[in-house]
Design brief:
13 helices, 6-stranded mixed beta sheet, alpha+beta, 27% strand
Length: 495
């Protein structure tokens, strides 16, 4: 191959070996990965050394075997053309078009502004041979850095906070709507005296304008002098509009997402009350599958006769689910405040859901802890069973009499179960997002959570809650919201 292993590790084969910079070779590699089927091809290393490549896909990559080969016969599969058969820039131009197509496809799947920026960097830099990229956006009439890669932290820092009317390449390209291609530091000094070079030799400033609205500026930096061909200029100009549309759409999504999450957080308790004899800790993780907000809720309600622990989940992920959650939470607090028993409170909440006519179902678990002694009465409406960790570490799912989920039938009675809570025990209430996994029975997830609770250190209730959520918090994808409410039963003080 003509290179050392160290030069290849961690890099794309065709980026290291210019004579392999043919989109057909990259296509064969990607096809082998996707189809998981072996593939082979031949390529010529200048001037006349032919190599045969055999690709063998595996679960975590592709093993490639490369051996010398004779010149292929005319009837053989057409090999990758050697560099001498075309101009030096031909493979690069084909590579540009491949990355352009990839960029257009990937931008349709990018949802957040960060994802859009990463897609642009991943495709534009290798397509045009750039080393640095920065994207500045307009906020309150000034430029602000949204994303940068490939350079030092100070790359284009002089653009930060600059007003749009400033005479700088990053702003003038946006106000004029015309891309700027600066091929040398001398050209930059002539056009914009005093502008820092950032140790860059060539720049492409692309205005990001969507629906006649200035969104920002995308800047490509080249460490070496880079002449921009007419084709380069045309392609980059066209891509600027595509990037602008994707970025504007993503920024709108980010704003709406933040608004939705803010609404959801506002509907949940800001802090838990301090109750003698127990310690409570709560954790809430929103789902990551979309912008819609969920209906998980929790509450700790002190009463004259003790304290009520509540956790529930309204079906669906929408504003309607969140609104219904807020109304059910208020109903639970109202029934608890007037001294209703757990069974009567749950029946009342069920009637409330019917009266709301929301067309949604909900699950709920309601546990009333006695003010004196260590006993409780529990009622559940189709909710996953609470877990109880005894002082010796033994942990079990509580065997409660289960009532139907809320919203199935208006006139329903809910059975109560009396449970003992010895001093030093820990009670865990949670929603199904913590224990449900695709194609897996929920009982498997509950037992996995039970085992984690049994073996985790319980020196700190906060640390215990974080341990139970360790896997969920580290996952890049959560299909559902997660609520967790832990309650530690304290031993009575001597005397």
């Amino acid at each position: 191959m003509g290179v050392s292993a160290g030069e290849l590790l961690g890099r794309f084969l065709w980026d290291v070996l210019p004579w392999l910079s043919d989109p057909d070779i990259e296509y064969r590699h990607r096809s082998a990965m996707i189809s998981q089927a072996p593939a082979s091809f031949m390529a010529c290393r200048s001037p006349d050394r032919w190599l045969a490549f055999s690709l063998h896909p595996e679960a975590d990559g592709v093993t490639a075997r490369v051996v010398p080969a004779g010149q292929p016969s005319p009837t053989a599969t057409p090999p990758a053309a050697p560099p001498e058969t075309a101009t030096a820039t031909a493979p690069a131009r084909l590579g540009v078009m491949y990355h352009v197509l990839q960029l257009g496809s990937a931008l349709t799947e990018a949802v957040t502004a960060q994802q859009v920026c990463e897609v642009v960097a991943d495709q534009l830099l290798p397509a045009f041979g750039g080393q640095r990229l920065a994207i500045y956006v307009v906020r309150d009439g000034t430029m602000h850095l949204l994303f940068h890669t490939g350079g030092h932290e100070d790359f284009l820092e002089w653009l930060e906070g600059v007003p749009l009317h400033a005479r700088l390449p990053g702003t003038e390209t946006l106000t004029s709507g015309t891309p700027l291609f600066i091929e040398s530091q001398q050209a930059l000094s002539r056009g914009y005296p005093g502008t820092p070079t950032d140790e860059v030799s060539s720049w492409a400033y692309l205005p990001l304008i969507a629906s006649s609205h200035p969104v920002g500026t995308c800047v490509l930096g080249f460490d070496e002098i880079h002449p921009f061909t007419e084709k380069d200029r045309g392609v980059l100009t066209a891509l600027a509009g595509l990037i602008a549309q994707a970025l504007e759409r993503a920024r709108l999504y980010d704003s709406e997402f933040a608004l939705a999450r803010g609404l959801q957080q506002a509907l949940l308790p800001h802090r838990l009350p301090t109750v003698a004899g127990i310690q409570t800790v709560v954790r809430y993780l929103p789902g990551t599958s979309g912008m819609d907000i969920g209906g998980d809720w929790y509450d700790v309600i002190p009463t004259d006769s003790g304290v009520c622990l509540v956790i529930g989940d309204v079906e669906g992920h929408s504003i309607a689910a969140a609104a219904t959650m807020a109304q059910l939470r208020s109903a639970v607090r109202a029934f608890a405040a007037v001294g209703h028993s757990p069974r009567d409170a749950m029946a009342g909440v069920n009637r409330t859901l019917f009266d709301l006519d929301a067309g949604l179902l909900a699950s709920c678990c309601y546990i009333h802890l006695d003010a004196h002694g260590h006993h409780a009465r529990a009622v559940t409406a189709g909710h996953p069973p609470p877990l109880l960790r005894s002082p010796d570490g033994t942990t079990d799912a509580l065997d409660l009499d289960i009532g139907p989920v809320l919203g199935v039938e208006r006139a329903i009675t809910y059975p109560e179960t009396r449970i003992a809570l010895p001093p030093g025990s820990v009670l865990a209430l949670y929603t199904d997002g913590l224990v449900e996994e695709p194609a897996t029975d929920i009982d498997v997830g509950i037992d996995r959570l039970r085992a984690t609770l049994a073996h985790a250190r319980a020196d700190s209730l906060d640390e215990l809650a974080d341990r139970l959520l360790h896997n969920a918090r580290g996952s890049s994808y959560r299909a559902d919201d997660i609520a967790l409410l832990l309650t530690a039963i304290r031993a009575p003080r001597p005397g």
